[in-house]
Amino acid sequence: MTAPNTPRICRRGARGIALAVMLALWAPGASADPNPNPAHGVLGHWLAHEGDSSILELYLEGDALAGRILQVTSAEGDVLQPVCEHCPGDLEGRPITGLRFLWGLRLQDGRWVGGHVIDLRDGLTQGTIANAEIAPRGDTLVLHAYLGVRALGQTRIWTRPAPVSSRAAAVP
């Protein structure tokens, strides 16, 4: 008599275990990372296109977001070594590669705000320090830089660079 009921008990036990697992996975606050950090989505390497292309690195200085230039390449793919000719103070004449160009951004409502960026492009605006904010949008970052009036600022979009293996495969 107990043999016919055994499969039923096992099925009920299996259902209970499956239900417990599903509830544990769907429970509020349950995640793979017990201390999720919203900064992790913006940290790392990004690609900026301004005629030439730059590989940027975003990193944390304490709890503030900062960035430096890792590499500048021409449209033809040649690695360039530009110098900041019009940068203020001790930055004047320094190589742009390795230069910290972004600093002081604080996370607020999903955006990084309240920081500063230095314009490293050749021309009359090179060396200008502006207010900066960064907003993640999908797999891109939107940098908005402005002097005084936010609405009159400029916006740049950064993307993630292709993985190293993809870039190596693209070289003939």
Write the layout of secondary structure elements.
Elements: H1 2-26, E1 44-50, E2 52-61, E3 64-73, E4 79-80, E5 100-108, E6 111-118, E7 129-137, E8 140-146, E9 154-159, H2 164-170
Antiparallel strand pairs: 1-2, 2-3, 3-4, 3-5, 5-6, 6-7, 7-8, 8-9
Could you please describe the fold and organization of this structure?
Helix content is 19%, strand content 40%. The chain is of the alpha+beta class. Strands 1, 2, 3, 4, 5, 6, 7, 8 and 9 form a nine-stranded antiparallel β-sheet that branches. A hairpin with a 2-residue loop joins strand 5 (100-108) and strand 6. The longest helix has 25 residues, at 2-26. It is globular and about 35 Å long.
Largest sheet: 9 strands, antiparallel
Oligomeric assembly:
single chain
Overall residue-averaged pLDDT value = 78
Radius of gyration: 25 Å
What's the tally of helices?
2
Distance between the termini: 75 Å
Helix-strand topology string = HEEEEEEEEEH
Low-confidence stretches: 6-35
Features of the shown structure:
172 residues; alpha+beta; globular; single chain
Question: What's the short version?
Answer:
With 172 residues, this protein is of the alpha+beta class. Helices cover 19% and strands 40% of the residues. The radius of gyration is 25 Å and the shape is globular.
